[in-house]
Amino acid sequence: MITTRRMLLDTAGALLERQGYHATGVNQILSVSGLQRGSLYHHFPGGKEELAVAAILDRARRSERFIERHLGAVGDPADAVQALVEALADRVAHDADGASPPFAAVTLEAGPGLERLRDACRHAYTGIRACFEAKLVASAHEPARAASLAAVITAAIDGAFVLCRVDGDASPLRQVAKELAVLLRRPPPGGATAARAAPVGTDV
Amino acid sequence: MITTRRMLLDTAGALLERQGYHATGVNQILSVSGLQRGSLYHHFPGGKEELAVAAILDRARRSERFIERHLGAVGDPADAVQALVEALADRVAHDADGASPPFAAVTLEAGPGLERLRDACRHAYTGIRACFEAKLVASAHEPARAASLAAVITAAIDGAFVLCRVDGDASPLRQVAKELAVLLRRPPPGGATAARAAPVGTDV
DNA sequence: GTCTATAATAAGATAGAC
DNA sequence: GTCTATCTTATTATAGAC
């Protein structure tokens, strides 16, 4: 059974992800979901912000599960991250309008007066980075390096979603998938940097 | 002389960057700038959206110049990008509230009805990626790889700004600066064996 | 070019019947 | 739990004096 509360969380979550907080009106949430004002304020007495906080936290949990599932399916972290980002690109290619970083817009809009919303976004981003970090540590990466790589993975995916939006195309996510795999691939023991030793013509 | 038009562009640009389009009201632009409604609608008869478009395009030009200046100051592209992102991190550390990707929030908010705003954002992101791409091509990177790397650099910086916002700290940008340098020093996937200096094997 | 009063609309939230 | 009428406030935009 699909509860009213679930309907509100899903509708609000999708709109917040795509448009951000201020561009998403209570009226729009109601018209899209087909629900009535009374239901919203019954389930979320705190109104729009309380619903937004709950929707963000709900989507954060789902995002973490999605990431963990994909990372758990492939052993090598470089391959796993590449497959995960390719899956996101496929999703964007299939539904170009849904090309959105889940929390970026709301995070940037959550200024003074929306502290609880900002806390929810912080929680979301912390959890997502932790997923990548755990995978990297489990693959014998040094903890500090794992944290650094997790931040870059999270950031690059978010930014790629934005580029997908402006391009109307999934290519940026595919480019990020490929390059993150390059970054995560451990250099051969001998140190492959030797070949790169002579960048002729690059000095000014 | 600081013209009224310039004051409007700077004020609106800063607020749009920090808060996005819908969270930034005309009233706020006026109160922060100390100007009056009449001035705004005189210089921008199209109202809020016309001002926003002009402010975005103005900031896009400035961003490109900032990037070109930093990339031009250092020969090696890995070092140059690292220095650029470190400079952004310093800026964030100095003014933590100013931790914002310049165009991400507005891009994500620019849905149906704000097509001109979206076009301005597309123009901004295209120009920024082109700056990195040009630097990489000039450093003997294969064009397709340069485009891919430029997208990743742009995306990672944008995403790092968002993480800086939620963390209240410049660390994500510093992590991205370090890891992008690692990525840019890494030989391409195909396995650039010896002498990356001669772009052998770049033909398909 | 600039200022202010006002219009027109949309926003989020509430009250009370059912 | 759900629905609808209504309140309050904030929004963008315009008109017309200066």
Please outline the helices and strands.
Two copies of one chain form a homodimer.
Chain A: H1 4-19, H2 26-33, H3 37-43, H4 47-73, H5 77-94, H6 104-109, H7 115-138, H8 143-167, H9 171-184
Helix pairs in contact in A: 1-2, 1-4, 4-5, 4-7, 5-9, 7-8, 8-9
Chain A binds a DNA duplex (18 and 18 nucleotides) through residues 4, 25-27, 35-39, 41-43, 47-48.
Notes on the structure:
2 copies of one chain form a homodimer. Chain A is mainly alpha-helical and 204 residues long. The first copy, chain A, has a domain at 56-185: Tetracycline Repressor, domain 2, CATH 1.10.357.10. The first copy, chain A, has 9 helices and no strands. Chain A has helices at 4-19, 26-33, 37-43, 47-73, 77-94, 104-109, 115-138, 143-167, 171-184. Mean pLDDT of chain A is 93; it is low at 194-199. Chains A and B meet through helix 6, helix 7, helix 8 and helix 9 of A and helix 6, helix 7, helix 8 and helix 9 of B. The first copy, chain A, binds a DNA duplex (18 and 18 nucleotides) through helix 3.
